[in-house]
UniProtKB/TrEMBL annotation:
Protein name: Hydrolase
Keyword Zinc tagged: yes
Coiled coil stretches, renumbered: none
Alphabetical list of SUPFAM superfamilies matching this protein: Metallo-hydrolase/oxidoreductase
SMART domains per record: Lactamase_B
Keyword terms of this UniProt record: Hydrolase, Metal-binding, Zinc
Domain of life of the organism encoding this protein: Bacteria
Amino acid sequence: MLIAGFPAGSFQANCYVVAPAAGEECVIVDPGQNAVGDLDDLLREHRLKPVAVLVTHGHIDHMWSVAPVCGARDVPAWIHPEDRDLLSDPGKGLSLTTRQQLFGGLTFTEPDDVRELADGEVLRLAGMELTVDHTPGHTRGSVTFRLPGTDEIPDVMFSGDLLFAGSIGRTDLPGGDYPTILRSLAVKCLPLPDDTVVLPGHGPQTTIGRERATNPYLAEAAPHAGPGRGL
């Protein structure tokens, strides 16, 4: 399995490429702000051919470059229907102040081919099987993508802004809800094996076991307002 990535743009949102091996087809996860150049370099380095772009949620820091990447490679974008409108109007997912700061003269459009994700769906792409989990709370349409491991490699979860090393995604933007994100963590993260590798939308990788033992949000039993990371 080949997984490589980089933090994109001023938001430092992690963009990943995933493939069975170098020289094969791949999927791209969350191409954010100014991701095109670094992404092209990564694809050339590993001789990869993209077949799809997967979007963990519709916030601008994760989908800024979705349309140009899909257009240049003639591949579809996959996103949950609850966040699909953010592809063409990402300001809906931001505060008024942030919209005014970011979108002076900028316009966004959907890629030509947009496909909608469903909870529990298994995507068979690039010779891999990725399980989709709907994990609302950061946004209404947030999802994670899970890859099964092997005897030598543990399971992998691309967590978007659901779960970070030591923290969780913020819930104070439109579509966010703290009790809902706690339910998503409880239902979709806590049942996973401890050695599951978590590749988050921001910051370093971690494991479910490490977060189970140290992340205060995973230990919360009662919902309350709390801070988080990510746009």
